[in-house]
Amino acid sequence: MQLKYGEMDVALVGQIADLSNKTIDSFAAEEALDPGVLVIRGSNPAKQIKKAGTGTLKDVIGITVHQHKEPDDPYYPVGYSVGVMTRGRIWVPVTKAVTAGKVANYKIADNGFTDEAVASGIEAVGVSCVFLTSSAAAGIAEIEIGHANVTITAGA
User: Fold this and answer.
1) How many whole angstroms separate alpha carbon 113 and alpha carbon 129?
2) What confidence category does residue 1 fall into, taking pLDDT thresholds of 50, 70 and 90?
Protein backbone atom coordinates (compact mmCIF):
# COMPACT_ATOMS: atom_id res chain seq x y z
CA MET A 1 0.00 0.00 0.00
CA GLN A 2 1.34 3.40 -0.98
CA LEU A 3 1.52 5.70 2.03
CA LYS A 4 3.42 8.68 0.56
CA TYR A 5 3.18 10.61 -2.68
CA GLY A 6 5.77 12.45 -4.75
CA GLU A 7 8.73 10.26 -3.80
CA MET A 8 9.03 8.04 -6.87
CA ASP A 9 12.41 7.40 -8.44
CA VAL A 10 13.00 9.07 -11.80
CA ALA A 11 13.43 5.66 -13.46
CA LEU A 12 14.29 2.00 -12.95
CA VAL A 13 17.72 0.51 -13.58
CA GLY A 14 17.69 -0.85 -17.14
CA GLN A 15 14.72 1.29 -18.19
CA ILE A 16 14.77 2.71 -21.72
CA ALA A 17 15.26 6.45 -21.24
CA ASP A 18 13.35 7.92 -24.17
CA LEU A 19 12.14 7.39 -27.73
CA SER A 20 15.40 8.33 -29.46
CA ASN A 21 16.93 5.88 -31.95
CA LYS A 22 18.06 2.68 -30.30
CA THR A 23 19.05 -0.88 -31.08
CA ILE A 24 17.82 -3.68 -28.83
CA ASP A 25 18.69 -7.27 -29.68
CA SER A 26 17.31 -10.40 -28.03
CA PHE A 27 19.49 -13.09 -26.49
CA ALA A 28 18.97 -16.04 -24.14
CA ALA A 29 20.42 -15.61 -20.66
CA GLU A 30 23.27 -18.13 -20.27
CA GLU A 31 23.31 -17.28 -16.57
CA ALA A 32 20.88 -15.51 -14.27
CA LEU A 33 20.81 -11.73 -14.94
CA ASP A 34 19.15 -8.55 -13.73
CA PRO A 35 18.17 -5.38 -15.65
CA GLY A 36 20.91 -2.79 -16.20
CA VAL A 37 23.76 -5.32 -16.32
CA LEU A 38 26.68 -5.08 -18.75
CA VAL A 39 26.79 -8.24 -20.86
CA ILE A 40 29.13 -10.07 -23.22
CA ARG A 41 28.37 -12.84 -25.69
CA GLY A 42 27.96 -16.29 -24.14
CA SER A 43 29.05 -19.83 -25.05
CA ASN A 44 26.83 -19.65 -28.13
CA PRO A 45 27.80 -16.12 -29.22
CA ALA A 46 24.93 -15.81 -31.70
CA LYS A 47 22.24 -16.63 -29.15
CA GLN A 48 23.46 -16.23 -25.55
CA ILE A 49 24.72 -13.53 -23.18
CA LYS A 50 26.30 -13.50 -19.75
CA LYS A 51 27.40 -10.85 -17.25
CA ALA A 52 30.67 -9.06 -17.96
CA GLY A 53 33.29 -9.00 -15.21
CA THR A 54 36.91 -8.16 -14.52
CA GLY A 55 38.91 -8.43 -17.72
CA THR A 56 35.86 -8.86 -19.99
CA LEU A 57 34.46 -5.31 -19.94
CA LYS A 58 36.35 -4.61 -23.18
CA ASP A 59 34.08 -7.22 -24.82
CA VAL A 60 30.76 -5.71 -23.64
CA ILE A 61 28.07 -5.61 -26.32
CA GLY A 62 25.40 -3.77 -24.32
CA ILE A 63 23.18 -3.50 -21.26
CA THR A 64 20.19 -5.64 -20.29
CA VAL A 65 16.88 -3.78 -20.64
CA HIS A 66 14.17 -3.79 -17.97
CA GLN A 67 11.10 -5.70 -19.16
CA HIS A 68 7.78 -5.41 -17.35
CA LYS A 69 7.03 -8.87 -16.05
CA GLU A 70 6.30 -10.73 -12.84
CA PRO A 71 9.45 -10.18 -10.74
CA ASP A 72 11.80 -13.10 -10.11
CA ASP A 73 15.05 -13.29 -8.17
CA PRO A 74 17.10 -13.06 -10.29
CA TYR A 75 14.90 -11.06 -12.63
CA TYR A 76 15.92 -13.03 -15.75
CA PRO A 77 16.52 -16.75 -15.06
CA VAL A 78 18.78 -18.95 -17.20
CA GLY A 79 17.29 -19.39 -20.68
CA TYR A 80 15.02 -16.33 -20.47
CA SER A 81 14.86 -14.10 -23.57
CA VAL A 82 16.52 -10.81 -22.62
CA GLY A 83 16.60 -7.51 -24.51
CA VAL A 84 20.09 -6.03 -24.78
CA MET A 85 20.48 -2.38 -25.72
CA THR A 86 23.56 -2.05 -27.93
CA ARG A 87 22.88 1.55 -28.92
CA GLY A 88 20.61 4.14 -27.32
CA ARG A 89 19.74 5.73 -23.99
CA ILE A 90 19.19 3.74 -20.81
CA TRP A 91 19.17 4.24 -17.02
CA VAL A 92 22.04 2.55 -15.15
CA PRO A 93 23.31 2.26 -11.57
CA VAL A 94 26.00 4.76 -10.54
CA THR A 95 28.45 4.35 -7.67
CA LYS A 96 28.69 8.04 -6.72
CA ALA A 97 27.80 11.51 -8.00
CA VAL A 98 28.42 11.75 -11.76
CA THR A 99 28.49 14.60 -14.27
CA ALA A 100 26.61 14.78 -17.58
CA GLY A 101 28.90 14.75 -20.62
CA LYS A 102 31.61 12.61 -19.01
CA VAL A 103 32.60 9.14 -20.21
CA ALA A 104 30.93 6.35 -18.23
CA ASN A 105 33.43 3.74 -17.01
CA TYR A 106 32.54 0.76 -14.81
CA LYS A 107 33.54 0.25 -11.15
CA ILE A 108 33.65 -3.52 -10.82
CA ALA A 109 33.54 -3.90 -7.01
CA ASP A 110 30.44 -1.68 -6.78
CA ASN A 111 28.66 -3.09 -9.87
CA GLY A 112 27.96 0.36 -11.22
CA PHE A 113 29.02 3.14 -13.54
CA THR A 114 31.29 6.02 -12.59
CA ASP A 115 32.79 9.09 -14.27
CA GLU A 116 36.13 8.34 -12.60
CA ALA A 117 39.09 7.68 -14.87
CA VAL A 118 40.20 4.14 -15.69
CA ALA A 119 42.36 2.82 -12.83
CA SER A 120 42.68 -0.30 -10.70
CA GLY A 121 39.14 -1.64 -10.25
CA ILE A 122 37.65 0.76 -12.84
CA GLU A 123 37.54 -0.38 -16.46
CA ALA A 124 36.49 1.20 -19.74
CA VAL A 125 33.42 -0.40 -21.30
CA GLY A 126 33.77 -2.02 -24.76
CA VAL A 127 31.03 0.18 -26.22
CA SER A 128 31.19 3.95 -25.87
CA CYS A 129 29.06 5.21 -22.97
CA VAL A 130 28.52 8.84 -21.95
CA PHE A 131 26.45 10.22 -19.07
CA LEU A 132 23.49 12.31 -20.26
CA THR A 133 22.35 13.25 -16.76
CA SER A 134 24.17 14.14 -13.56
CA SER A 135 23.49 12.65 -10.15
CA ALA A 136 24.12 14.12 -6.71
CA ALA A 137 25.08 10.76 -5.19
CA ALA A 138 25.05 7.02 -5.82
CA GLY A 139 21.81 5.89 -7.45
CA ILE A 140 20.91 6.00 -11.14
CA ALA A 141 21.79 8.13 -14.15
CA GLU A 142 21.04 8.11 -17.85
CA ILE A 143 23.75 7.10 -20.30
CA GLU A 144 23.96 6.90 -24.06
CA ILE A 145 25.48 3.73 -25.47
CA GLY A 146 27.26 4.19 -28.79
CA HIS A 147 27.76 7.93 -28.28
CA ALA A 148 29.43 9.40 -31.38
CA ASN A 149 31.93 11.59 -29.49
CA VAL A 150 33.73 8.80 -27.63
CA THR A 151 36.59 6.66 -28.89
CA ILE A 152 37.46 3.51 -26.96
CA THR A 153 41.19 2.90 -26.90
CA ALA A 154 42.66 -0.55 -26.35
CA GLY A 155 44.09 -0.88 -22.86
CA ALA A 156 42.36 2.28 -21.66
Assistant:
1) 10
2) very low
Condensed to tens digits (0 to 9), the pLDDT of residues 90-148 reads 999 999 999 999 999 999 999 999 999 999 999 999 999 999 999 999 999 999 998 76
Q: What is the rounded CA–CA span in Å between residue 111 and residue 92?
A: 10
Burial 98-122 (b: 16+ CB within 10 A, else e): beeeebbbbbbeeebbbbeeeeeeb
98 secondary structure, DSSP code: B
The model's pTM is 0.88
Q: How far apart are CA 9 and CA 91, in angstroms?
A: 11
- Asked whether 113 and 142 are in contact (CB, 8 A), the reply is no
Amino acid at the residue 82: V
Q: Is 33 left (phi over 0), alpha (psi -120 to 50) or beta?
A: beta
Expressed in angstroms, the distance from the first to the final Cα of the chain is 48
Domains along the chain with CATH numbers: 23-145 (2.40.300)
